[in-house]
Structure formats: structure tokens, C-alpha cells
Write a structure and sequence with these properties.
CATH topology of one domain: MetI-like fold
CATH class of one domain: Mainly Alpha
Structural class: mainly alpha
Strand order of the largest sheet: 1-2
Order of helices and strands: HEEHHHEEHHHHHHHHH
Strand content: under 5%
Distance between the termini: 70 Å
CATH superfamily of one domain: MetI-like
Shape: globular
Largest sheet: 2 strands, antiparallel
Radius of gyration: 35 Å
Helix content: over 70%
Number of strands: 4
Length: 324
């Protein structure tokens, strides 16, 4: 019958545990355990639930090894570049490219020692660095806030983007005649051209950074009572920082290209003017020295941007996509 309990079947399914202790509370176990299967104790169950520890290398040791490897690879690439330069000038290779008139590394090094002793070369470097810092700072002060506003508000974007898309394709070198007419001095025109070169990469990357921000973060900030200025300061700006620093890195490279071109055309001092003057005087070691100086200064500026980015965004130091 459905309501009557079959006693033998109940005993086969359930069994009393710890029969020796009549005072112990009754504990039941399954039929498989009653047939002789080993009972699962608390110790074995806790051991089974605990995951096996995975041995990992210390983070400091792993970072140190990666940094050493990166440094070795960087030195190796520069060494390879100088080796190609040395072999090409030593054997005067003429195979599609001609090394016949290219000075040797020793000649350039000797030229650097001679120029280092004079104040003229140092003055040229100081003037170029001053111009790049002025133009780049103005590009940051205008490009980042404007990019945040354009990326945030649709009507502002509709107003500014047509003008941006018209002016953006114009290369900075094409602005040289116009800048000479607009600004009263060559110094101001060169800074303006440097600003133009850095402005558009910074602006567009900032806009893209705002567009790529997850809307959940903005809605969460609003639900927590954040005002619009606080959303900009604590949500939108930190979320767009990776894209902003990408724009800063690209803008710095374009700013150096624009600065050197402007100094060659309308400058009286600067590394670009020094390089063009050496070309006019057919001083080949000085030409290569000017090119190397431009590359070293650009590398230092880009390294400074990356350092500031790591200080402001420490969470990106070990991002999944940063190590391959």
C-alpha cells in the first residue's frame, strides 16, 4: 500500500551509526555506506573541497626578469642598427641604397665631441625643447578638455566635429605660410605649428576614450548621487586616461616632426635649423648628428610620457594585454 512503510526496505536504505554509544544522537547514512562503503569524514571532505595550491613565481622576481629581458632586447636592437650602419659605411655598400657619402659612426662621434664643446649646439637643443614643451602643453590644455566635452555631449560633437574633420587632414608643414602671416614672430609661428601637430591626435584619442567608456559606470555614478562635474572628475576622466595617454604619445611624435619641419623652413635656432644648415654646408657628419639628436630627444619625451602614465595608471602595468 502507498501509505505503509516497508520496514526491511527502510533498513536497507538507512542505518544507524555509532550503535556503541546509546547516548549519541541518531545519525543516518546512505545505503551505499550501509553496505560497507567508507564513510566520508569531515577531514576528508574538507580536504576534497580545498583546491590544490598552485606554485607561482614571486611577482617581484617575475617583474625583474621581464625588465631585464626588455632592457637586453632594447640594447640588442640599437646595437644591430649601429652594426648595419658601421658595416654599410665601412664596405661602401651600394645595393639599392648607397653608403658612399654616409659618414661612419666614428666621424659622427668626433663631430658630437666638437659640437658638445660649443655653446651653439647646446643652444639649439634648448630652443627646440622649449618650443616642443610650449606647443605640447597648449595642445594638452585645449585638446583634453575639449575632447572630453565633445565625447560626452552629442550636440557639442555635432557643432565641432565638422571643423575638426576639415582641419585634421591638413599637415602641419602646410600651416607654415599661414602661421607666418598669423603670428608676429617666427618663434610664435613655430610654437603654433608644433601645437597643431600635437593637438589633433590628443583631441581624437580623448574623444575615443570617452566613447569607449562603459555606460554602466556612468549610470552607477548617477545612482550614487554624483553630479556632472564629479562624473567628469571621478568616472569619465579616469576611464578615458589610457586613450588620452595614447594620444599624448602619438601627439609627441607628430609634434617633433612638425617642429623640425618648421625650424628648417622659418627657424633661426633649433635642432632642425642646425640639421638644415649642415646640409647647406655639405657637412654630412653634422647632418647625422642632428638626426640622432632629434631621435634621442623624441625618445626622452616619449619615455617621460610613459612614466607619467604608469604613475597615474598603475593598474595598467600588468594588464592582460600588456604581456605577450
Amino acid at each position: 500500500m502507498g501509505g505503509v512503510v516497508n520496514q526491511p526496505q527502510l533498513k536497507s536504505r538507512l542505518a544507524l551509526v555509532d550503535d556503541d554509544d546509546p547516548q549519541a544522537p541518531p545519525t543516518f547514512k546512505s545505503s551505499s555506506q550501509a553496505r560497507g562503503a567508507p564513510a566520508e569524514t569531515d577531514a576528508t571532505s574538507s580536504q576534497a573541497k580545498q583546491p590544490m595550491p598552485v606554485k607561482q613565481k614571486p611577482l617581484l622576481r617575475r617583474v625583474s626578469r621581464d625588465q631585464w629581458l626588455s632592457a637586453v632586447l632594447a640594447v640588442a636592437s640599437i646595437t644591430l642598427l649601429f652594426a648595419v650602419w658601421y658595416l654599410g659605411t665601412k664596405y661602401r655598400i651600394e645595393f639599392y641604397i648607397r653608403f658612399k657619402n654616409v659618414p661612419t659612426p666614428y666621424e659622427v662621434f668626433r663631430q658630437a665631441l666638437e659640437m658638445g664643446a660649443s655653446t651653439k649646439f647646446v643652444t639649439n637643443i634648448i630652443n627646440s625643447v622649449r618650443r616642443i614643451l610650449a606647443g605640447f602643453a597648449i595642445a594638452i590644455l585645449i585638446g583634453v578638455p575639449l575632447g572630453l566635452v565633445i565625447g560626452r555631449y552629442r550636440h557639442v560633437r555635432s557643432f565641432f566635429m565638422p571643423v575638426v574633420e576639415i582641419l585634421r587632414p591638413i599637415p602641419a608643414i602646410a600651416w607654415v605660410p599661414m602661421s607666418i602671416m598669423l603670428w608676429p614672430s617666427n618663434e610664435a609661428s613655430i610654437v603654433y605649428i608644433t601645437f597643431i601637430g600635437a593637438f589633433f591626435p590628443i583631441l581624437l584619442n580623448t574623444i575615443h576614450g570617452v566613447h569607449s567608456l562603459d555606460g554602466v559606470l556612468i549610470r552607477a555614478g548617477r545612482c550614487l548621487g554624483a553630479s556632472e562635474p564629479r562624473l567628469f572628475l571621478y568616472v569619465i576622466l579616469p576611464g578615458a586616461l589610457p586613450h588620452i595617454f595614447t594620444g599624448l604619445a602619438v601627439g609627441m611624435g607628430v609634434a617633433w616632426v612638425s617642429l623640425i619641419a618648421a625650424e628648417m623652413i622659418s627657424g633661426q635656432f633649433g635642432v632642425g635649423y642646425f640639421t638644415w644648415e649642415a646640409y647647406s654646408l655639405v657637412d654630412y657628419p653634422a647632418i647625422v648628428l642632428g638626426m640622432i639628436t632629434i631621435g634621442v630627444l623624441g625618445l626622452a619625451c616619449s619615455g617621460l610620457i610613459r612614466l607619467i602614465g604608469k604613475l597615474l595608471m598603475p593598474w595598467l602595468a600588468f594588464a592582460p594585454g600588456s604581456r605577450k
